Description:
The structure holds two protein chains of two kinds.
Chain A: H1 6-19, E1 42-47, H2 67-78, E2 82-86, H3 93-101, E3 108-110, H4 113-117, H5 129-132, H6 137-142, H7 160-165, E4 175-177, E5 179-181, E6 183-188, H8 189-194, H9 203-215, E7 225-228, H10 231-247, H11 251-254, H12 272-280, H13 289-302, H14 314-319, E8 323-329, H15 332-338, E9 346-349, E10 372-373, E11 376-379, H16 393-399, H17 401-413, H18 416-423, E12 430-431, H19 443-449, H20 458-461, H21 464-478, H22 484-506, H23 511-519, H24 521-525, H25 533-537
Parallel strand pairs in A: 1-2, 1-3, 7-8
Antiparallel strand pairs in A: 3-11, 4-11, 5-10, 5-12, 6-8, 6-9
Helix pairs in contact in A: 2-18, 10-13, 10-21, 12-22, 21-22
Chain B: H1 4-37, E1 40-41, E2 49-50, H2 54-62, H3 66-84, H4 87-96, H5 101-112, H6 119-130, H7 136-143, H8 160-166, H9 175-185, H10 189-197, H11 202-213, H12 215-231, H13 234-239, H14 251-261, H15 265-289, H16 293-297
Antiparallel strand pairs in B: 1-2
Helix pairs in contact in B: 1-15, 3-8, 3-12, 4-9, 9-12, 12-15, 14-15
Amino acid sequence: MSLKRLPLILIVVVGTWLLLPPSKPESTDSAPSSAAPEDVRYTIKVSPGRAYLPGTHPYGIGEPLRGLADVVAAFEKRFPDTRIDILTVPSVREYLVTQLSSGLAPDILNVNVEDVWTDVHKGWYVPLDSFLEKPNPFVVEAGDPQAPGVQQWWDMFRYQAISRGKAAPDGFSYCLTFDMVETGIYYNKSLFAQLGLEPPQDWEQFIAGMQRIQAHTRADGKPIVPLLINIAAFNDWTKDLFFDQVYRDLLPGIDLYQDLIREPYLDGYLDWDELAFLRQKGFFSRHDPRYRVVWERMLELKQFTNRNLMAEDLVREFVTQRAAMIWTVSPLSHRLQSDQNLGFDWDVFYVPPFTRETTQFAAGQQMCVIGGAATQLEVTNSAIADTDPSLPMADRIAQSERLQRVIALLQFLCMPEQYVQIVNEYPAYLPNIIGVEPLPVLKPFEKILARRYTTTKWVYSFGLRFSEIQRRMLELYLTGGAQLDEFLGWQEQNIDAATASMLRRKQPDTAHLERRWQELAPVRATMVGLPPLSAAAAQ
Amino acid sequence: MISPRLQSTLGCYGIVLPSLALLTLFVYLPVAWAFVGSVYEFEIGAEAQFVGFANYAEYIWQDPTALPSLLNMLALTLIAVAVRLSFPLVVARLIYALPTERWRYVYRVIFLAPVVVPGVAIQLIWSGMIFSDAGLLNQLLESIGLVHWSRGWLADPETALLAVAAVGFPFVGGFEVLIYYAGFSSIPDSVNEASAIDGCTGWQKFFRIDIPMVLSQLKLILILTIISGVQGFEHLFILTRGGPGFETTVPGLWMYFNAFSFQRMGYACAIGVLLFILVFGLTMLNLRYFKSSEQLQGVR
């Protein structure tokens, strides 16, 4: 054989070798199962999100995480016929949709439940209510008759309003609110002291403080950005907070529907159908004076923020002291606490409330909670893959043995002695299980979470198209590319299109909303700052 | 008994067949599927509903992003055509003019090397290091006293589109230089010598001899630039996601959002079909009216 053919033969051999399947399943980050492969009856895939992924270093700090792997190993020891694969999947919707539609998604998935709501009618997710309303068997087994979870698994959760408030508009709960996150404004305490500033108590102090910071320059003569914030925060948190501040007073006259399950926990929450109905009555338009205030105050805030609202590395600006404050979520505490070379003291305060000086519509109450669930664990259709897909979901839930084991894993993770190993391995999120205290550095966020929950979550009310268009046009408005009326014109079209889409898809009965609207007319007659009737007629 | 000629023909078809089958399966069938899908309202995992040409009508007449995004696409494509037909052409001609093959080789390598940098990395460098608030451009402006000129380049509605178009400056690190260089290299020595004897040198030679001789390459780059200008949106997704507002949105990006974020697959298919028709029409016009160097010389 000629040597000239040697390269060709080598390519064929190497190519064939590369195409061979691996000799063992792809490695996972969990501890190896003690069970022999032939004894494994259930292989459950769990995507917990990056916060607890074993082997990773949050912010590149410290030892690799192992809490979840240890707990999973304990579960596998308890159930030798079960193997848990911990993996990470991209949280991008494009990926999840293909995985879920093909039945290949992990059994347990961490994704914002509001993104789940748009798909629940497709049978991609398993409602958890029937399990949450029963005892957690591991708590029962522990033998304490007073322990939360003996009556209902639900009772184990500390933040009931937020946890139950994650129920979908169809009334079912599709997620386990595993832990909590809240936003706060981290500030450079050293700089504040230098400028004689204190954490503001109201909006006017907040603005005045930022004006002083803006007038100040660093040693190198460069300006300091008072507040770092990105467009997602404007679109989501800021809108909900400001909306709550100026509409709170109106709730007795416009909160048309009291959901029997959710309302005891969500005090005066406006669901999408209520928002859509109110829109038809002239609210959320150019003619709605309160709605205008929401956006005007946002523009006022923008004067003190970073110019590029799409910037992704705002933390860098804060730790290098190019900015005085950053509005972000609690995991930053871990980054700041661990930095030995930070060079300044820091602390956290919450967005201060509007006053009557800010707007005549100010409710005079502290800013509400807009955060809440951080890790939201959903059970996917993969967990009921051992049942006939043509059956109704309730039957599949009742028949699936695999689902029982998946639920058992979730119940096991909620046991305080297991849970503490995961959630308190480092300071990122706050525990949502009674009996597990937050780490000291997260205490400021615990105080914030004790407040009343928001009036609504706008970006999750109508769907992703609505949120995307609102985000884009808001950015344009905040960067001077559109005037308020032009922006509100877009918003009106956006809400109308989203409302039409929701009505077409869900066909809700709005007659009861109209009846309630009429009943509450005397209440509204005593209120000021309502949109004029002509605005409603123009809809 | 199969004749040798038929055997040879069948053999050739046999070689082509696997590629053709894969091409059909992964390219032509999805394209056909997109045509069919465009007349349905559907999302993955849910029932589809026949809506006729409603998706097309909605995009053309009702979608407020349609006209702005088309204008953005037009502007970006025109700028891309202008820079790809000029900057790399000049660089290639300069390399071609170098006196020794050794130096031509060195410069070809230097100008081709940036191709190995992934496009995503380039976009992130421009958005994070050059156009960011504390980026190179603002630092430069501030250091020469032009503080009032500094801004969020990609976030400012007045500059976002131009900033996007400027990514990749000076537009000479790519295959275009090589393609033009290949064109210049293929100019017969007799043509160069004849022009020199006639006293045609410098810019005169560049415009009257060199450019007509590389028209085939210019035509190729023009077609490829138009196609990528109409279809491409990845860089916009990374840099601005089409914002602020819809200032840098193009139809392709809106198609992507509708398909994978909003789950309006039928609507996205309709946008895709319209883009296909647009690309097809522009390419046909280009082929019909833009002459290649061979056509100018009467070879074809």
